[in-house]
Amino acid sequence: MGKTLDQIGLPSPELSLVEQTSLDKRNFRKGLIFIGVATFAWSTTSIFIDRLLTDHHMSALQISLWRSLLVTIALGLFLLLRDRSQLTISRKEIPFYFIYGLIGIGAFNLVWNMSVEINKAAVATALIYCSPVFVAIGARFLFGEKLKAVQIMAIVINLIGCGLVAGITDPTVLLNSPAGLLMGLASGLCFAASTLFGKIATEARRRSSGTILFYTFFFATLGVLVWSLIVEGPSRMVPSLDGTGWALLIGLSVGPTLGGYGFFTAGLRHLPAALVSFLTTLEPPITAILAFFILNQVMNGLQWLGTGLIVSGVLLMQGITARRKRLNFKIANKSGTKL
Question: Is the distance from CB of 61 to CB of 291 less than 8 angstroms?
Fold first, then answer.
C-alpha cells in the first residue's frame, strides 16, 4: 500500500496551496526554534560534566552510563503514564533502533569521552564538528539533499571557526597523537550518524519523538552497560555521590541530555539534516560565552573571530536553505495553478 501524502511531504488535499505554503513556513521556523533550544541545552553539558569529573570524581564511562540510564527511566515512566501504546514497536523496527542507539548515542558518548581524555576539551570540541561534512555527504545519498559550491564554502568557514574557538591555531598539533585524531573524527562520525538516523526515524512518521528517544537511549544504555562491565567491572557501576552530585547528574540527564535530544529530534521533523547538523555547530561559541559568565574563562581575539565565522557560516547555510524552500513554494504554486 502506498504512502499517504503527509508521509511523503506533499500538500494535503484538505489544504489549499496557500495554506500549505504558510504551514510549511511555520514548520520551518518551528524547526529552527527547536534546534536552537537543543543547541543551547547541549552547550551546558560541559559545565555539568566538569563538575562531576573534578568535584565528584566520576569516570567518563560512569557519566555516560548513568546519563543514558536516567533518561531511559524518565522516558519510560512518562510514556507509561501518558500513553503506554507508544512503548510498542514492531520486531522489524528493533534492529534499526538497536543500531541507532548503539552508534548514535552509546558509541558517540564513549568516543567523545575518549577524545576529551586524549585530546583535551579544546581539540576534541573542534574535531567533533567535522560532523556537518559527514552529514552533508550522508544526506546527499540518503535524502537527495544536494550541496552547492556556496554551501561547501559555508561548511569550510564553519570548520575554520570551530577550530579557532577551540584554540587550534596550528593544525599540525592534531598529528602528534594519531589515536586522539582517530577518536576525534570518530566522535564527529558518530554524531553525524545520530543526525542521519534521527532524520530517517522522523521522516518515516511512524513513531512519536518520545518513542524514538526511549528506544535509542534504551539500547544505548545496554551497550554502555556491557562496555562498563568489561572495562571498569561491577564495582564501579554505582558512583559514590552526595546530594549535590546526584542533583548534578540528574540535572545533566534531564536538561542537556533529555531536553537537548528531545528538541533535536523534534527539529529533525521540519528541517533538512544538513542544516540541522550545521545549526548545532553554534554550540562551541555558546559554550564559550557561558564559560565566560559562569566559569570566568575568557576568550581571546582569535576565538571571538572563530565565533563570528561560525555564526556567519550558519546564517549563510540557513539563508540558502530558506531561499531554496521559497523557490519550491513558487514551483508548487505554479503547478497548482496549471492543475
Answer: no
Q: In angstroms, how far is CA 34 from the centroid of its own chain?
A: 12
Residue with cell 512518562: 78
3-state helix, strand, coil in the chain (%, to 5): 80, 0, 20
Cell of 187: 566522535
| 84 grid coordinates | 503506554
pTM of the predicted model, to two decimals?
A: 0.72
| Residue extents of the structural domains in the chain | 24-151+168-297+321-338
Nine cell digits for residue 223? 551497550
Tens digits of per-residue pLDDT, 146-201? Answer: 767 777 787 788 778 767 766 666 666 655 667 776 777 788 888 888 888 888 88
Distances in Å between the Cα of 333 and the Cα atoms of 20, 143, 275, 322 are 10, 23, 24, 17
Say if CB 263 and CB 34 are below 8 A apart. Answer: yes
In the prediction, which pLDDT does 248 show?
94
Digit-coded pLDDT (tens) for 101-116:
999 888 888 887 777 6
Outline where 205-300 has alpha helix (H).
209-231, 243-252, 260-268, 273-279, 283-294
Sequence letter at residue 20: Q
